[in-house]
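Still learning folds. Look over my entry:

…
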Amino acid sequence: MAEATRLSSNGTAQRGPYISVITNRTTNLLIRGTMLFGVGVFLALVLNLLQVQRNVTLFPPDVISSIFSSAWWVPPCCGTASALIGLLYPCIDRRLGEPHKLKREWSSVMRCVAVFVGINHASAKVDFANNVQLSLTLAALSVGLWWTFDRSRSGFGLGVAIALLATLATQLLVYNGVFQYTSPDFLYIRSWLPCIFFAGVITMGNIGRQLALYECKVVQEKIHQD
């Protein structure tokens, strides 16, 4: 292996190519995580506003602390989860050696985000005859989102697993009185909530994959130039 450091002509130490690449990867990882966190916080504020305005979710008055009618802890939690999901998806892809079957473009990612927002909007604004019909409709839309913008087995598996964990965590929060759902029909929550979680996981996974792909292209170009 080449030396980690070497002396330049004036006797000062320089980082070797190996250390330089590792440093760049660490920096890029932090940048990607920060960007994913910001996207998660923004979507949490916007989507939670839809739910609160429709009186789907109710927070106690003493924890309302923003103009978006969202409890202070919701955006940071969603941002952290978004960062972890967005970083996990490309990592799992590399581990499994499962390349993405669809052509990755930012326009496709933006369409995925738009569909996810639309699914959430439908859960809050569209009136259905009963909760079963609403849940089945959102389930079909969520699977359609995965099929249109993902189609990977790892993406589907992670989406289902994380959606189940998020649903369990939400059940515990509602059980302990942190907030509540109006007209719960699945224990303490609404039956369509896992569908929203699944669609959100797929969306953040696609954003994470696109950021990782862009990073890979930049690193390869830099190595080629060096």
